Structure formats: C-alpha cells, structure tokens
## 1
Amino acid sequence: MGTKEVRTREEINALEKEIWNERTLDRTKIRKLRRHAFHFSYKKQKRILDSLVKDFSDKDVLELGSYTWNVWFKGNEVRPKSLTCINISDNDLETGKKLAANVDFKTDFRLMDANSLEFEDESFDVVFGGAILHHLDIEKTINHVHRVLRPNGKIVFLEPLNMNPLYKIYRKLNPKERTPDEHALISKDIAILKSSFTFDHYFFDFFSVATGFIALKVFGDKNYGNWLNRLGYGLDSFFSKIPVCHPLFARVIIYGEKK
Ligand SMILES: C[S@@+](CC[C@H](N)C(=O)[O-])C[C@H]1O[C@@H](n2cnc3c(N)ncnc32)[C@H](O)[C@@H]1O
C-alpha cells in the first residue's frame, strides 16, 4: 500500500481538476455494489434532501462542487431565488450550465476553488454540497462557508464517512475509485462542523453494505429491490437512531444553521 504522498493544496486542486475534467476514476465496481447496497437508502436520501431544499424557494443558494446537479435541475419542484454553483472542473460546470438552460430562476456558474471562496461576506442564505467536503480542506472551507452565509444561514451536506474500520480497509484496497487526496469524514471533521454550525443529521448504510455485497453475489447486477437489501435497510433505519452506532455508517446528511 506504501506511504501516502503529501501534496500541497495547489497540487491537490490541480489533480482534482484533471481527474474530474477527464473522468479518470474507475468506479465500475463500487457502482455495482452501490446499486444494491444503497438501493433503498438512495430513495430515502432523495426524500430527505427534497424536503430540506423545498424550504429554499426564496433563498440565495451556493452549491459547492456539483456534477450531477440532481437536486436543482432534474425534475424537482424546488426553485431557489438564485443558485450560484462553483466547481474546480470546467467540464462539470459546463454540464451544469447546459442543465440550467431551461430553469426560470437566476443561476451563476463560476470556476472557483471551494477551499478559498471568493464571495463577499454574508452573500448567501444556504450553502449546499453533495459529496464535496471530503475533497477539501474542511477547516478552511467551513470557515469560508460560515463567512459567506448570512446570519441564520443554513448548510446541507451529504458526505461519506470513514469511521468504520471495514470501510477504511475497503478504501485502502480500492484506491482507483477515489481521488488520491479525498478523505471521507472522520469525527475530527464533524467536530469542525459542529464548532460553527448547529448539527442535525441522517446516517445511512451500515448493514446495507454487507447485505448489498451478498445480494450482488446472489442476484448479480439486477433485482436491486430484493429482500436482502430490504433487510439491510431495515436494520440501518433502526440502528441509525442509536447515536453510539453512528461511526459504523457509511454516509451522512448533515444540516444545520450558522452559529
Ligand atoms: C464526488 S464529485 C461531487 C458530485 C456530487 N455528488 C454531485 O452529485 O454532483 C466531486 C466534485 O467536486 C469538485 N471539486 C473537487 N475539488 C474541488 C475544489 N477544490 N473546489 C471546487 N470543486 C471541487 C469536482 O470537480 C467534482 O465535480
């Protein structure tokens, strides 16, 4: 496995830009597993995100580092007052611009590093991000997010976690699925968030990863709504209510308000 190369933030940004512009990650294997393991939790995640963002209809929203743009442009009802999107990848921004061509709210796409937001203080009501914080220097970014939010401004982030030893091992064994410097969140990162924002959450996917793995072997890359995945999802729904179990989970939606 070897020692990890230490890169400066500029080097990390250059590498992230190149990887996302050229789509060089090999995610075939993890996608197959996710189609089983996250089959039910993806639906729950969508329901939760939809219900959180529906309150943003009169808000100025900043989204950090999107490429699927699922929340805003893909058949959803939500219509913020304005949506500003930043990304370090020109290609991902271009995708967003195309998807935004037909929306009737104000959009603004900017090539920018999320670690060093270039906006004025108190420019936004909401900062949103799907799987982005773990590509960044969390402390730097959270300071900027706090700065650019107006009083009582809101955050919503969906992020992978790296507290469960099994996920840590999986990640180490499958480095080509991720950018080399990304770091799924650990308790220290959660503490950084909590120091600047109130902290509410939904944890997803612990048992479902194991049942999804077995389901993939049993059913192949189809029949995702099977009983095994349903069982894993049911167990997760129960255990996610017990705080001491939270470090076992693979993903979290964090939402909160500026302190
Ligand atoms: C895992 S993807 C996020 C995809 C997101 N879940 C979505 O559905 O759109 C990571 C994104 O972060 C962007 N990114 C990585 N580092 C960044 C940085 N320093 N500033 C802004 N965007 C960055 C990448 O270009 C990529 O689009």
Note: The chain has a mean pLDDT of 93.
## 2
Amino acid sequence: MKSALLKKRNKIVLITGGAGFVGTNLANHFLSRGYRIRIFDNLSRKGVDQNLQWILDRGGDQVEFLPGDVRDFHDIREAVSGVDLIYHLAAQVAVTSSLLGPVEDFEINTRGTLNVLEAIRGQVQSPPLIYTSTNKVYGGLHDLILREKTTRYFAPNSRYRSISENRQLDFHSPYGCSKGAADQYVRDYARSFGLRTIVFRMSCIYGPHQFGNEDQGWVAHFLIRASQGEPITIYGDGKQVRDILFVEDLVEACYLAYQNIDRLAGSVFNMGGGAHNTISLLELLKVIRDITGSTLKTSFANAREGDQRYYVSDTSAFTSRTGWSAKVGIGQGINKLYAWIVKNRAAQSEPSLVRAAA
Ligand SMILES: NC(=O)c1ccc[n+]([C@@H]2O[C@H](COP(=O)([O-])OP(=O)(O)OC[C@H]3O[C@@H](n4cnc5c(N)ncnc54)[C@H](O)[C@@H]3O)[C@@H](O)[C@H]2O)c1
C-alpha cells in the first residue's frame, strides 16, 4: 500500500500554460491527488503571475516552474523530459488578437502544438497528451435554424440544439484555424505515430483564477467589470447563447480522460456545460445584477468576427465513455467565481510577493 502511494505521488504532470486559468485549477486538482506538477509558461497572459505564485505557495516542492515558450522546441523538449502525463494548454487564446496577428497566433497555437507532439514522439516512453481545442473549429454554424426570444436565441428543432463531434469542421478566424490545425495534428499523431492523445473541443469555461477580459473569458470579464463598477460593452445583440462549464467540472473531465487514456486514445470530445447550462449574454447580465445588487452600465457594439449566435455542446460521447457529467449549475458557479474575484481584489491591495518570470 505504502509503495503504491509513493509511486503515485512521484508521477509528474506537465501543464503547458499551467499558470493560466485552466492550468492553475488543473494543477491544484493534481496536487490534491498527490502528483508532482511541472508548470511551463511564458506568463504572457496578464494576471497569471498571481496564479503561479498561488500554486507555488500551495504546492511547495511538489511544484516546479519552468519558464519557457512553446514556440521554442528546445524549451519544450526540456519540459517534456521525464514527465508521466501532459496537458497542453499554452495558447494564444483570443479570436480578436488572432485577427491582429495571425502569424503569431499560428506560431503559438499550431507550431507550438507541433513542437509538443514532436518532443513527445522523441521520448523513449511517450507520455499521454490531453489537448484543449475549441468550439470555434465548427465555424459560424450559420445553417442552424434559430428563433429569438426577448433574451436569447433558441433552436426549435432538436437536431440543432447541441453540437456533436460529428459536426463538419469549418475553421473560422485565424484562432479557429490555428487551434483547429493543432487539434487535427494531435488527433493524427495518435493515428500515425501511436501517441496516446485526446482532444477536448471546449465551449466556454469559467471559474476562479480566470483573468477574463474583453477578448476572452466573457463570464469572468463581465463579473470583474461589475465588481469595479465599470461599463460593459456587448458585441452583437446580447442574445448569443453558450453552454458554460464550471472549471471544477472541466478538471474532473481532464482527470477522467487521463484515467481512461488507453481506451480513449485518439478520440475527440466536445466539452461544455451542455443543454442544462446554457445562458445568453443578456441573461448573464441579469444574474450579475441579482448577485451584486448593482445597476450595470452597458452599451452595444457590432457583432464580432466568428461569433456564433448559438453554441451548445453535445457532451454525450464523453459521458457515455466515462460516466462524467457537469455537476455545478450556473447560479452556483457564478457565485463562486464572483466570490473569488472580490477576494482576489482585496488580496491585490496587499503588497505582492509575485515571483518574476525568468
Ligand atoms: N477558457 C475557455 O473558455 C476556453 C475555451 C476553449 C478553449 N480553451 C483553451 O484552453 C486552454 C487554456 O485556456 P485558459 O482559459 O486557461 O487561458 P489562459 O490565457 O488563462 O492560459 C493560457 C496560458 O498560456 C500561457 N502562454 C501563452 N502563450 C504561451 C507561449 N507561447 N508559451 C508558453 N506559454 C504561453 C499564458 O501565459 C497563460 O498562462 C487554451 O489552449 C485555450 O485555447 C479555453
């Protein structure tokens, strides 16, 4: 029993982009299970140095930080060396930034992922890889027949109500292309080279440690603005619908993917809150007003490139293979995120001991 526990404790999980929102939550989960964590990150996302400090404080000598960039093959080869499992999360994450700099977006998301795959392929024992792709690989979904209510779009025909992995790929926006190409490489390295890989095509994830901004992470962004009394711009009519997934549920799915890696290798799964956790932008504003008691200042601007009017994940494939389901409802999840934002803001007024990136 003792030796089995020691063996498990010694396993090393590499998380690229591990200082980011999802990465921090994932690191925390694996730490709680007795794993060692290697975080690889260039800390380019504003705010994530705070996450890094939090996870270093929490994990002590069980956490190692390796500063580096996925675009640099030597950096990533060093990071991959000796690990038992890899979550590849490091990415340029915003559609808006990809439109401003498509080449940089490609270099980070596609080339960076290929670097990770090649580094794994070069190992004597290739560790499994779980990759976080996006619902943007399905494009604008313009063929969905939608109707409007006062606060949201809805799909009257059950055929369009949720999107499965069988949906045709239709990369839209440079971000959709770079993530989509990486998604296909990850899938193909399972076929062509026998690597044990899984792809999650994720909808909107939200929760603590998310430094949402206008470009990415809209649930956190709205809550942060509300907590600061700042105005919120709604791009489009605000009736866009998403299935949002609380990060703890995603982390559980990530863990199950690893536990079942030999059965699931080579698979792609859509991952989100599903039909029970849908919300529109306008509806989120109402929830925020109810939670904070504040009157929000909002304005409207044109819809953004590549923005789907309606996206709800069909997660039944992953559920049927692993038994996973989303447990945290929208009200509970948003309350938890808001509590973290308020607490984090209070902590930020204290002197910071944040460790600088090398
Ligand atoms: N959060 C969501 O709703 C969502 C939805 C779909 C897909 N995803 C994907 O999930 C992953 C994690 O997203 P997140 O929300 O945690 O984002 P995040 O921005 O919080 O985390 C990404 C991390 O990657 C790091 N990074 C960026 N470029 C890098 C580089 N060149 N080299 C090394 N590190 C780099 C950043 O500093 C950051 O810490 C991303 O791949 C993203 O595309 C997220």
Note: The chain has a mean pLDDT of 94.
